[in-house]
Amino acid sequence: MKYKLLATDLDGTLLNEQREIDKENIEAIHEFRERGGRVIITSGRSPLSTRWIANTIGLKGEPIIAYNGAVILDESGEVSEQAAFGHDHLMSFWELCEGEGIYAHFYEGDTLLVPRETKWNQNWIENNILALEKTGADLTERESFRSRCQVKMVDNFYTYVKRNHPVITKIAVFNDEGKLADFSKSIDKQVGSMEISSSFNFLNLEISPAGVSKASSLVKLGEAYDIHISEMAAIGDNFNDSLMLSAAGLGIAMGNAPDEVKKLADTVTGSNHEAGVAQAIRRYLLE
Fold it and tell me: Which of 37, 83, 117, 277 could cross-link with 25 by S-S, CB 3.0 to 4.6 Å?
């Protein structure tokens, strides 16, 4: 088998427009696994969110990459490795947000730290642990997962950091006024080195500790399983997948990916409403 491992993104990739997973994708994933391949979820989602999806589609027992590479879960679903922001970096970053009037929230494990209630954090627990009804979710298990997530209002972030010494592994930034392109430049100048990926048209930013990416964590997992990254295929749709698509032996962009992302990949498959993951597996990994 030329490619021993498939790394797949979730939102916009494995998840369709209704945030469900098509039966064709699940069947193709298990065909690849029956041939001896491994399938690894690599997502910007939280550890619990990724575990919930993995369990639902029968990937329980596989390692997972969460928070864009900042957290690696082992085969038992426990955190085996994580990268966190230094507290000085967090303070400087929050100061910058306050000065420029930019909204940001912070991920501490499976808790979302928010400065106030906004449209960007409403219903976060339900959006984090998706319903997956058409995918075949176990409703009791879903409620168990949701009960372990929390949204915490933090009025004074400085005090919270000093008192609690939180382990923050991801930051998300949102703005409707077109300020994020300039804000991302300000981060580099005033805060220091961070890994920043943007959505199309800079509607939001996902920020990771310096040196952290889906690609870097794939390399670490490859070392643990004796699989070189050249023996991996990766599939994704957005800018936080870019390094992964470039580094993998076979980088596959979704049909719904921005053109800039497609250019970094080796090939393009169908969109996420056409079971593009299944198309890619059957065309490139099974034939």
Answer: 277
Clarify whether residues 94 and 154 are in a common domain: yes
Sheet holding 111-114, edge to edge: 150-153, 111-114, 103-108, 168-174, 204-209, 194-198
How many residues in the chain?
Answer: 287
Other beta carbons less than 10 A from residue 30's beta carbon: 16
Number of domains in the chain: 2
How far apart CA 69 and CA 45 sit, in angstroms, is 10
Residues 199 and 105 placed together within one structural domain of the fold: yes
CB–CB of 212/240 below 8 Å?
no
Residue 144 within any structural domain of the chain? no
140-190 pLDDT tens trace: 999 999 999 999 999 889 899 999 999 999 999 999 888 898 898 899 888
